[in-house]
Amino acid sequence: NPIAVAIPAGKYPAFVADFATAPIARGKLDILHDNGQEAPQDLVQDRNGKVSAQANILTQGGAIRTLGGTYEKGSHKGFCLSAVVDILSAVLPGANFATTVVPTLGYIDKTDKPIGDNQGIGHVFAAIDIDAFQDVDAFKQKMDAWIDIMKQATPIPPHLSVVIPGEPEWQAEAQHQNQGYINISPTLAKEIQKLQETFEIKLM
User: Fold this and answer.
1) pLDDT tens digits, residue range 73-99?
2) Residue of 21, 27, 9 lying closest to 166 (CA atoms)
3) Rounded distance between C-alpha atoms, residue 114 and residue 1, angstroms
4) Predicted TM-score (pTM) of this structure
5) Where are the alpha helices (DSSP H) in the chain?
6) For the chain, which terminus, N or C, has the lower number of CB atoms within 10 Å?
7) CATH classification (class only), 3-198
């Protein structure tokens, strides 16, 4: 995912926001296609920029739209997020950016326009010294208070609970540790089995 921010707390697990700047993941589109379902409205487009409902449109030259999907739903803000990520993680470190990024998927045409000497995918990491602003323990207590306020909010609809970024992953990890395995889809299981047979890998 292009953006990930981790913030420590005290009694709670860390606040972890880990998200893409696209409204839907490619893997979810693959699952929809495998199940014979259409893509959600306004999230993908064909090679001519027209909205499409085909979940496999990426294999036909289509693309996932920016976060928001349409201008009325804030797609211009999604473009700004994508642009900031591309500039900070590619232009800044001297990696390939925009249309010069070499695709990793077989159905996307390879670029022949690399810019600069460094050809590849870039990253940027930053760390904030909490102690430069305030005592770390005091900060963690305030993070706990912030989480408490959010968790005490009335959810809509009321039968659901307010979820803090990172919470679903912590819960899933605890569940998987407890049951001793991770649930995967039948389609993914078949793909793993095919790789196992192709490369003669013995599963533990």
Assistant:
1) 999 999 999 999 999 999 999 888 888
2) 9
3) 23
4) 0.79
5) 26-34, 75-86, 136-151, 167-179, 186-198
6) C
7) alpha beta
